[in-house]
Design goal:
By secondary structure, this protein is mainly α. It has 25 helices and four strands. Strand 3 and strand 4 form a beta hairpin. It comes from Mesorhizobium opportunistum (strain LMG 24607 / HAMBI 3007 / WSM2075).
């Protein structure tokens, strides 16, 4: 291809991918209710704040961006490429999601699809194989699940994909080791800089590439390549270390001084549950094609698919030592499984016994059914008789039953509280939490009395017992495994039953919330006593002996 043809190909592919992506995003966002909370709203709020700051003072925005890169766990650098979208289209939810799709998701889809296709294709491949791979990549549900929920973490996948390309094309840094090593180092650092948890993926691909490099050199008996690979690896390591220490030294120091295994132990379950969670994010049809693709890769010695699969599994095994992978955490794991998926697609569409037109259509239908059933309620309902075609874990538009009851609860709080009053919510889940309530009405934010939500990360915050109003529920509302959030469940139980600390509160109002949950608003009628606080901590200490009761 000439340069003009290459440019035309990528421009056409981008536009043809972007337009349906924007349409699907618009449909999804239009079906949502504005009930965003936690990670679903964190970057959305930052997007609007950063956009407003950029318009008011560009130099102040740049200064804040540099500070965020250096110190923040949730750095705002990932949003910097989205700022033109804010300036032109504003800070709506659709503008935010569409920006992630346009800037990060579509380029990632095109790069991994093209790389996977070129590595899987052969002289006998059908011309329709590329179309089938492109459709499958575009509708690959793991890419969309965090994106539609407002999490821009797929940005790291773009950097990881480019790093994987340079590793593979340079034959694991043995060809042009200095330039290749620098390119790989820059891409891997960018992934980490955009979202720090990509450090697990960086380790996964680095170890996998080193392993496959050694196998390749031993197989080819090209022993001088050891030196070239070592030189390339040192260049990559130097770039990562230099950029991290230069731009992120405070954050690096914080990371090195933190035991994330202990901090996030409440987010960690058993290996079988973790496998089940990963398995539930793809349809059975998708998993079958991935398994077929891996088999074909072994038989035909397709090293690219095997390298990526190895990196995927290794990243998963490293990550679960800290916590269970959520939708956004599993992005690089599923990214590296796509080449095996594409390998099976190319093989099926290119089979002489099948008409490529019909086999490509079947692949497109399978991908479409998976997308439709995973993200849209009507699709999940219509396809329920053939549930194996979509992911078990649904990512449906956010919705709350009885939304007017939540509005009434918020109105009661705002009507009763004075400027100095605080309220606390002893619930931590999708149907009730402080984040959900002040997400529905930001006027609540100055009045929030923050609670502990995860035992291992937060510990109990006794200041919440000084809030004038508390919101509790008739059953514990948690989002982690039982026993990981007793700092929520024990106070909730005491207040509902009127025992221990609950004796200091009286019930004011009752609300019928989502999912059949009954919520209660309580007012503190007297200060919680020291004996009651000590009794609460004695219950905590049965599970966490190092939790000491505060001075009261």
């Amino acid at each position: 291809m000439t340069k003009n043809k290459i440019f035309g190909f990528w421009t056409g592919a981008y536009i043809c991918t972007l337009i349906p992506g924007l349409v699907l995003s618009a449909i999804y966002v239009s079906l949502e209710e504005p009930v965003y909370y936690w990670d679903f709203v964190a970057y959305f709020n930052t997007f609007r704040h950063q956009g407003a700051l950029l318009i008011d003072g560009p130099f102040q925005w740049l200064s804040q961006l540099a500070t965020s890169i250096a110190t923040d766990d949730y750095g705002s650098a990932i949003l910097a490429p989205l700022m033109p979208i804010y300036v032109v289209f504003g800070g709506s939810r659709y503008a935010f999601v569409a920006g992630i799709v346009a800037v990060y998701l579509v380029p990632t889809v095109l790069l991994i699809a093209r790389m996977s296709y070129l590595e899987a294709t052969s002289e006998t491949a059908s011309p329709r194989a590329w179309l089938a791979v492109w459709i499958a990549a575009f509708l690959y549900t793991p890419f969309w699940a965090p994106t539609l929920r407002g999490m821009p973490d797929i940005a790291g996948c773009l950097a990881i994909t480019v790093a994987t390309y340079f590793l593979w094309k340079s034959k694991f840094l043995t060809s042009e080791p200095v330039i290749s090593g620098i390119c790989v180092g820059v891409c891997l650092w960018l992934a980490f800089m955009l979202r720090r948890w990509y450090a697990y993926a960086v380790i996964g691909i680095a170890v996998s590439a080193a392993f496959f490099c050694l196998l390749q050199i031993a197989r080819d008996r090209s022993y001088p390549s050891y030196g070239k690979a070592a030189l390339g690896g040192l260049c990559a390591i130097f770039v990562i270390a230099a950029t991290s220490l230069n731009f992120q030294l405070p954050l690096i120091a914080k990371i090195l001084g933190t035991s994330y295994g202990d901090l996030y132990s409440g987010y960690r379950t058993t290996f079988l549950i973790q496998l089940g969670e990963m398995g539930s994010r793809l349809s059975y049809v998708n998993w079958l094609l991935i398994m077929v693709g891996l088999y074909i890769s072994v038989v035909r010695r397709k090293g690219f698919s095997l390298l990526c699969a190895f990196a995927s599994v290794l990243t998963f095994l490293i990550f679960i030592r800290t916590q269970d992978p959520e939708r956004h955490h599993s992005l690089p794991m599923f990214l590296w499984l796509f080449p095996a998926y594409a390998q099976a697609i190319v093989a099926i569409v290119s089979m002489p016994a099948l008409k490529s037109r019909w086999s490509a259509a079947a692949i497109a239908c399978a991908a479409g059914f998976a997308f439709f059933g995973t993200f849209f309620p009507v699709g999940r309902q219509l396809l329920s008789p053939v549930g194996f075609v979509f992911a078990e874990e649904a990512t449906l538009p956010l919705h709350l039953d009885n939304l007017p009851e939540y509005r009434r609860l918020i109105a009661d709080l705002l009507g009763k509280m004075k400027a100095e009053d605080r309220f606390s919510v002893f619930a931590s889940g999708a149907v009730l939490s402080d984040s959900l309530l002040f997400g529905l009405d930001p006027k609540l934010t100055p009045h929030v009395g923050w609670i502990c939500q995860v035992d291992s990360r937060d510990r109990f915050r006794p200041e919440a017992l000084k809030s004038r109003y508390v919101v509790v529920a008739d059953r514990p509302v948690i989002h982690l495994q039982p026993g990981a959030q007793i700092c929520v469940t024990l106070p909730n139980q005491n207040i509902v039953e009127g025992t221990g600390i609950g004796a200091a509160y009286k019930r004011v109002e009752t609300y019928q919330l989502s999912g059949g949950l009954t919520g209660y608003l309580y007012e503190q009628v007297r200060p919680v006593g020291k004996a009651e606080v000590d009794a609460l901590y004695s219950e905590f200490q049965k599970r966490y002996p190092n939790w000491t009761a505060p001075e009261w």
